[in-house]
Specification:
heterotrimer; A alpha/beta (259); B mainly alpha (270); C mainly alpha (275); A: 259 residues; 10 helices; C: mainly alpha; MetI-like fold; 12 helices; binds adenosine-5'-triphosphate; binds magnesium ion; AAA+_ATPase (chain A); cell membrane (chain A); ATP-binding (chain A); transport (chain A); membrane (chain A)
């Protein structure tokens, strides 16, 4: 269970990315988070595994107060949370299986880390994870020989091999074509149903969000403006989340200006 | 474990033998090379000289360093070195143009390309100092011999880089021009030359950088440049003079490197 | 379009489209560049005393030494092996030591690994300055410090390799995509582990390939280091050229060519496999 209580997050440069967020997400939910660019979606999910720190309020994940963790505790806490990125974030100059095996690195002995060897049972686990996302035959190919959709599934296999309770996905299908995007979303759905992992997805594609997620959270300028079943999302709700056209961030918006 | 997974596990590429063979050979080579080089620490005299060089660097002979009269001071010598490297690069890059075409498998037949490559490799292996001595017979000692040496030795590297440029020519443009019914002359003039010009220029500027560094050593055989005064200064233990020359050299080469990087950036970005 | 000084002097061509918009085409820079090159060439020719007619009248002198080398003195072959192995050993040891020390230097120079601008800048400057020193000159200095012999040559090659690989590697490391590193941290790997499994596999092939390339080049450098007394075949070349014993020089060069050729092919083969 993930619990946000009055969470506020302000970046060192003064941008307030989360305002008074209160949320409870139960184990096994499939949640889509939607909102404009710069609304704070990435910030929200990155606070959950403490890639970002919150400033105020409390954030509890499976009865652990995330803000209180330190050093080694953060690392072992992160082992139970998987993360998927828009740009896949794989090591491209090595094989698919080596990427999946990385999920087992913290459990290895020092000499194995030095030489780069993995025990057989870890290899089996990695191959099984690849089998689950349907790219077992690519196990020994180099990642840079795969298509975008295949790479995202390698990333998914890497996360599955970690055997987490929660998967956080930051725009996982944004760089994929519509058909491949559906294939990857199907994988998420299947994993959610088969293993009861909670899944939180940031997504710009509203139709996909409504089709796959059970619950939708709408964020606008750091505030949760909608939280409910995906069936209940109407045009009014979308207007509330996205605003009318003139609310689209301008070039003087801090994030846009950086680009 | 299901069957497909078990099968895939079997298929894991086994590179242990390959990697350990390489590791063994490498270790043997390292041991062998340790045996050949007699590692000497530096004795008292060495330490003394090292401190002398350092103190020379920090108290250079300023008069010598800023003597702008032609010939005598560091600026004059550096100028001569720049000129040697420049002419060597210009001549070398001109000579490299026909050679690079003869080396490109997409222009001439494979055997011709191979033989030219072989010849160029062999030309490159002869140390520049040997060429320097040979040219001194032609021109007498002095910077002219240095220019000729630089021209010859830079052909090897420049033509190899030119070949890469030629092989990577954007052929799409040529196809497009053929489809528009352009003549061969038009294709070469508007399709090939513009592409080649800036890339060749960029390669040449890059090589100038290196030639400048190499030109400093020609003085060793009397082929001009700043190398000879440096050796004289060292052999006669005039450390502040050595300091001046080294400072001048480092500043010059750094400046040229920065300048040539800027220039090449501009060339690439148009 | 940004106007530079050049555009002010040589006005760009202006085309007016039918809808009233103006498009400017810069005047070609090629003639200007050629003019500068020509000017500098003439000045340099003056400074160095280039006289092309001399090539015609005395050019055959160049061939004199070359022909004197043929046929090479095959009896001299046995004198070549010792110094030749010295040369190879010097460049091997110098290259390996330089390549190894280049790793910490490259890491300390990379702003995405060590987040300390001052430290990065210091090591970058150090590598740049080291790179400006021609190998033969550092060898010369080394002979004064370490005495005549292979040690001086090894040190010179070591210094050059350090600067060369160090620079190429920090440039590569700074351009590495840090995405995988971030992903590994999100999985609970420590920074060191994330570095080991995200950055190292990305950088290693380039590192090995650059090191091999440096070694290839070093063999050629090492061949002349004997000139300043830093050991190897250069010593023989210097001696035999001084005695005008050209057939022996021919023999040295012939063996050198063959050895360099073989080493280059081997190294090229492995470099191809690495990319
Ligand atoms: N590292 C950072 N430092 C400072 N400000 C940041 C940082 N990351 C994000 N922000 C700011 O926080 C706000 C929320 O950003 P966030 O990345 O969470 O948006 P998002 O909803 O994920 O947008 P997108 O859909 O474009 O990914 C933005 O205004 C952004 O400029
Ligand atoms: Mg985002």
């Amino acid at each position: 269970m993930i619990e946000f209580k009055d969470v506020n997050k302000t970046y060192p440069n003064g941008v307030t990315a989360l305002k008074n967020v209160n949320l409870t997400i139960d184990q096994g939910e499939f949640v889509a988070i939607i909102g404009l660019s710069g609304a704070g979606k990435s910030t929200l999910i990155r606070c959950i595994n403490r890639m970002h720190e919150i400033n105020e309020g409390t954030l509890t994940v499976n009865d652990v107060n995330v803000g209180k963790l330190s050093g080694k505790q953060i690392r072992s806490f992160r082992r139970k949370i998987g993360m998927i990125f828009q740009s896949f974030n794989l090591v491209t100059r090595t094989s698919v299986i080596n990427n999946v095996l990385i999920s087992s690195v913290p459990e290895l002995s020092w000499w194995r880390k030095l030489v780069g060897l993995f025990p057989k049972e870890k290899k089996v686990e990695a191959l099984e994870a690849l089998d689950k996302v349907g790219i077992l035959d690519k196990a020994y190919n180099r990642v840079d020989q795969l298509s975008g959709g295949q790479q995202q599934r390698v990333a998914l296999a890497r996360t599955i091999a970690q055997n987490p309770d929660i998967i956080l996905a930051d725009e996982p299908v944004a760089s994929l074509d519509p058909v491949t995007a559906k294939v990857v979303m199907d994988d998420f759905k299947r994993i959610n149903q088969e293993t009861n992992m909670s899944i939180l997805i940031n997504i710009h594609h509203v139709e996909l969000a409504l089709e796959y997620a059970d619950r939708v959270i709408g964020i606008r300028q750091g505030e949760v403006v909608y939280d409910g079943k995906s069936e209940d999302v109407s045009q009014d709700v979308l207007d509330q989340i996205y605003g009318s056209i003139d609310n689209v961030p301008k070039m003087d918006d801090p994030e846009e200006a950086e680009v | 474990m299901n069957k497909a997974v078990a099968q895939q596990l079997e298929k894991a590429p086994n590179r242990k033998v390959y990697l350990s063979t390489i590791a063994i050979i490498l270790t043997a080579l390292i041991i062998w090379s340790f045996m050949g080089v007699n590692i000497t620490g530096f004795d008292q005299r060495g330490t003394q000289i090292a401190t002398n060089i350092f103190s020379g660097l920090f108290s250079p002979d300023l008069e010598f360093l800023f003597d702008f009269t032609s010939g005598g001071g560091v600026p004059g010598l550096l100028f001569e070195t720049i000129a040697i490297a420049f002419l060597g690069t210009v001549f070398g890059s001109f000579l490299a143009i026909p050679i690079s075409f003869l080396m490109s498998p997409s222009i001439v037949s494979r055997p011709v390309a191979f033989v030219t490559r072989l010849v160029v490799i062999f030309i490159r292996t002869i140390p520049s100092l040997v060429y320097g001595l040979m040219f001194i017979r032609v021109t007498g000692p002095g910077p002219y011999a240095g220019v000729l040496t630089m021209s010859l030795t830079s052909i090897g590297m420049i033509s190899r880089l030119y070949v890469d440029v030629i092989e990577n020519l954007d052929r799409g443009v040529l196809e497009a021009m053929t489809s528009m019914g352009c003549t061969t002359y038009q294709k070469v003039r508007y399709g090939i030359l513009p592409q080649l010009f800036s890339s060749f220029l960029s390669v040449t500027i890059y090589r100038y950088d290196m030639n400048l560094r190499d030109a400093t050593i020609l003085g060793l055989v009397g082929a001009g440049g700043i190398g000879a005064p440096l050796i004289f200064a060292m052999r006669s233990y005039r450390w502040s003079e050595v300091g001046s020359i080294l400072i001048g050299l480092v500043v010059l080469i750094l400046a040229v490197e920065i300048f040539s990087n800027k220039l090449r950036e501009r060339l690439v970005n148009g | 379009m940004r106007e530079t000084v050049y555009d002010k002097i040589f006005k760009p061509k202006t085309y007016t489209l039918s809808n009233g918009k103006e498009v400017k085409q810069r005047a070609s820079r090629a003639p200007f560049i050629l003019l500068i090159v020509l000017f500098v060439t003439v000045v340099s020719g003056e400074v160095t005393g280039v006289d092309l007619s001399m090539l015609r009248t005395r050019g055959h002198q160049f061939i004199v030494i070359l022909t004197a080398m043929f046929p090479p003195n095959f009896n001299f072959m046995n004198n070549v092996w010792g110094p030749l192995f010295d040369t190879i050993q010097m460049s091997l040891l110098g290259s390996i030591a330089g390549a190894l020390l280049a790793i910490p230097f490259a890491l300390l120079s990379s702003s995405n690994i060590i987040r300390n601008r001052l430290l990065n800048g210091f090591f970058k400057l150090f590598l740049s300055i080291l790179r400006t020193l021609p190998t033969l000159i550092s060898a010369l200095i080394a002979t004064f410090i370490f005495g005549l012999g292979t040690m001086a040559g090894t040190v010179a090659i070591f210094l050059f390799t350090l600067s060369y690989i160090g620079k190429l590697m920090y440039e590569h490391i700074e351009n590495v995509d840090m995405g995988a590193f971030e992903a590994h941290e999100s999985m609970g790997l420590s920074k060191v582990e994330a570095f080991r499994y995200a950055i190292v596999p990305d950088v290693l092939p380039t590192y090995l390939s650059v090191s091999l390339y440096a070694f290839e080049g070093n063999i050629r450098f090492a061949a002349i280091l004997g000139y300043v007394g830093a050991g190897g075949v250069g010593l023989l070349l210097d001696e035999r050229l001084g005695w005008r014993d050209y057939p022996s020089v021919g023999m040295v060069l012939l063996i050198l060519m063959l050895v360099v050729f073989v080493i280059e092919r081997i190294s090229e083969y492995f470099r191809m496999k690495l990319t």
